[in-house]
Design brief:
single chain; 332 residues; alpha+beta; Arc Repressor Mutant, subunit A; SH3 type barrels; 4 domains; 4-stranded antiparallel beta sheet; 36% helix; 25% strand; disordered N terminus
Length: 332
């Protein structure tokens, strides 16, 4: 598929959705209308209108049983809506709905990685025109922090050049230098990311914009290898796999929240505690994360992590046990 075809696909879908939303009230007002006449009014071919009608047959209200779906009757080349499933008026937005759509579209237009920005801006212009004075309401739409950095990285990516990054890796608590070949920018779970081929790791990596300490645009073009495949981020950035360390925890009532915020492989609910297994990026990250959870979480495995946390706790206790030098008296 060519870039032109990819750009046309969202527009065609949006046009069809608008046509379907207005097709039911149009047909209700014209029972028994000829298909050819309706197609001419709507500016589509007979074939396209018949395909739209076939799609309407499986549309309706949640439940999707008898009485929930749109129904129609054909008499030769004439069509009549016999059940509208409640879709009996063209779409009309009240002021609150119009303003909510304007705000949502403004936010979407500012989101990195959106490839149909022109379609979003066209839709926004139409809704703002229909909303009238509401579109001028004093509502400021801003993405999370790092706006200047985000705009600078986006401009560098659009230039098509490779980048030299100074990047902080939270999982290993270290800052590294690396050269990357940008592939795209995207927003996942409220964070902006640069996805690029990392020459140091020799693989596709996701770099959080707020963790890029500095970057330099290089003269050479961005050239990801043929095998550089974008990540599937439909379920988030972190995709635990069997190659990652497996950690087993004994979790009390106060620590059960981690099973809702982090991917876990298994939860065994015992009367007093839960036994939780989860994959982690590395044991260094797990040590820092689990050491801060307090007595509600106890590490069961692997032994290396148990020993790391025991050693860290012992060192901390020794620091408290050591006598502290007396503060000098005032005036001396």
């Amino acid at each position: 598929m060519t870039p032109q075809q990819r750009g046309a696909a969202p527009r065609a879908s949006a046009d069809r959705l608008g046509r379907l939303l207005n097709l039911v009230p149009y047909l209700l007002a014209r029972p028994g209308i000829r298909v050819a006449e309706a197609a001419a009014d709507l500016g589509v071919t007979d074939k396209q209108l018949r395909e739209d009608l076939e799609l309407l047959w499986v549309c309706g209200l949640p439940g999707y049983g008898p009485g929930d779906l749109i129904d129609m009757a054909f008499d030769g080349d004439r069509v009549t809506i016999s059940h509208d499933a409640g879709i009996d008026k063209p779409l009309r937005l009240n002021p609150d709905e119009a303003l909510a759509l304007v705000v949502a579209l403004r936010m979407l237009a500012e989101t990195p990685g959106i490839g149909t920005r022109d379609a979003i801006e066209r839709a926004l212009a139409k809704i703002e025109s229909a909303a009238g004075d509401l579109a001028d309401a004093p509502v400021a739409v801003r993405l999370p922090a790092n706006q200047e950095k985000l705009a600078a990285v986006r401009a560098a990516v659009d230039s098509g050049h490779a980048l030299r990054l100074t990047y902080y890796t939270a999982a290993r608590d270290e800052t590294t230098e690396r050269v990357v070949d940008p592939m795209r920018m995207l927003m996942v779970s409220g964070f902006a990311y640069l996805e690029a081929w990392c020459r140091r790791a020799e693989g596709t990596r996701m770099f959080r914009i707020d963790r890029i300490d500095a970057f330099t645009e290089l003269a050479e073009p961005s050239a990801p290898p043929v095998g550089a495949v974008p990540h599937d981020v439909s379920d988030g950035v972190f995709r635990p796999g069997p190659e990652l360390p497996l950690v087993t925890l004994r979790v009390g009532r106060g620590g059960r929240w981690i099973t809702e915020y982090y991917p876990v492989e298994e939860v065994r609910r015992e009367p007093a505690e839960w036994l939780v297994t989860m994959r982690v990026t590395d044991l260094g990250w797990a040590q820092r994360f689990l050491a801060g959870l307090g007595p509600d979480v106890t590490v069961v495995a692997p032994p290396e992590l148990v020993e790391r946390i025991r050693s860290q706790a012992t060192t901390a206790l020794d620091q408290y046990a050591a006598p502290q030098p007396a503060a000098p008296e005032a005036g001396r």
